[in-house]
Fold this sequence. Notes:
Number of domains: 1
Amino acid sequence: MACPMRETCPSQQRRSSRVVYFDDENFLGQRRQRNINSLPAELRKLRPNVEATMREFSRRFENGKLKVRGQFKGQLFALPTAIVINFGRVYRYAGS
């Protein structure tokens, strides 16, 4: 039997049949896709909200830099700012 995709096939010919070996990256990717497909449709789109929060958060900075220095001060500055951004969204959503 001649397969038209034989040259690009990832399987390898063994004695009696063809064998495909999967690495960890393929396995984890397939498992991740299966988990995403098992979620309800409204929960699959959470990432764009995170990206919008980061865009709104970093919009106020010149040259993409925080107004404070150091990791600890940066965390103290960033956490309340993100909370305020999300409360503003909830307020606008509840008001409309």
